[in-house]
Structures are given as structure tokens and as C-alpha cells.
Amino acid sequence: MINCCELFKNLGFTAEKTKGCDGSDVLRITTPSTFSDGQPVFFYLINNNEKIQLTDDASTLFKFVKDGYEMKNRWKSIYSIIDKYELNRNNGEIYIDVDNSNLWQGFGQFIACVNEIINYEKGLHIAQPTLDFVEMVAAELEKIAPIQERNPVIIGGSHKEYTFNFKQNDRYVDAVPVHPTSTGHLLRKLVDIRLAQPELDILIVLNDNNVDKNKIDKEMLVLSSMASVIDFTDLKQLRVH
Predict the structure, then answer these.
(1) Three-class DSSP category at 111
(2) pTM of this prediction?
(3) Could you read off the pLDDT of 96-114 as tens digits, one per residue?
């Protein structure tokens, strides 16, 4: 096992000998894969007699909690990724026990699983300006009616989970910057949701701050076939009558 260190290095991994809780030799593998903030993913290779255990010692899932993500409705998605790659999970730990002869197969399963979880985390990562805009929309919505729920989850026609920013008066609301990437992602999300729930009440609030009006109008035209769309300037004009 230790002789694989040079190969790991060539693939962008680093390997470091350390000690387990029982004093046994353990190999700590740092991978080239990183979370959205640049923190690398690592795991351990532990010799257990005729088996080798690959484990992340709960570090991967703990990252979501430490960074403050709202996870109530998201654990199911992450657990499905772990189950997809036939890995074990217990109290936040992701692990697999393999024979020496199947080490590379287990290694491949583990890396593929962690990479998919990382991609999921990067999809949740939101830049601070977007977070600020979401809170601005929340403040305006509260002037109209109480917000029922933050980060409600809807299941699309593909059985994929989608999160909205708010639920208000049984309407699902997303606060969205005007950007080709965010608009394209949102459109795919709306199409999938409409397959499962065509009558769902959805409102999209576009951030029109410092954005050309022609661009706003184009985005509204694209999205309006799938949801109600309003820009933030007009949202601020709405009041309870």
C-alpha cells in the first residue's frame, strides 16, 4: 500500500504516514479535489488485517455543517450519492472495506463519490452579492406577507431536488442575478419542475441593479413561459392593498 505513494503524487495526490487511534500506521491521502472555498478533500487508508479501509473520518459531510449550509432537506441527496457508489456511511463517516486485491476498485469508487459530493457542494455555493440580494428580496416580500419557509425543496420530473429561496402564500420565489449561467440553470430547473408540477405557483425576482433594461427584458421573455417574473424595482412598488 505504501509503495503507491509515488503514483498518487503523479496523479495530484499526496500521501502522508500518520498514526491511528490504536497506534497503527495509517496513510492520509490528500486529493487534488477541492470544495468551493479551495479546501482539499482527504481520506485515510487503514490496514485491518486482510482488509483495507478507506474512510474520510466524517470530514466530508462535516464540511457542510461547519460552513453553515441549510441541510435539512439536502441530506437525502447526499446520501443517495453515497449509496450510488456502494459506500458505507455511519454517523457522518463515509467508508468502504476492500480486499488488498480490490484496493484500486475501492479507491475509484471512493474518489468518484467524493467528487460528486463536491460538485453538489459547489452548486450550493453562493457568492456574497447574491446572498445580499436574496436578503433584500426577503425584506420586500415581508412587507407584502409573511414568508412561510426559507429554502423549500421541490421534486422535479427527473426526481431531482430543487431549492427555492422562499415560499410565501404557497408561491415559490427565487431571487436571481441576471447572468447567462444563472438564467440557463434556472430555466433547466423550471422545465424539470413543470414536468412534475405544471400548476405550481412560481415567482422569479430578477436583480436589475446596474443592469441594462434590454437585457432584463430579454431574460424576462425567456423565463416568463415557465414562471411569473418581476424585476426588483417593480417588486419594491408592490404593497398590501
Answers:
(1) helix
(2) 0.55
(3) 999 988 888 999 999 999 9
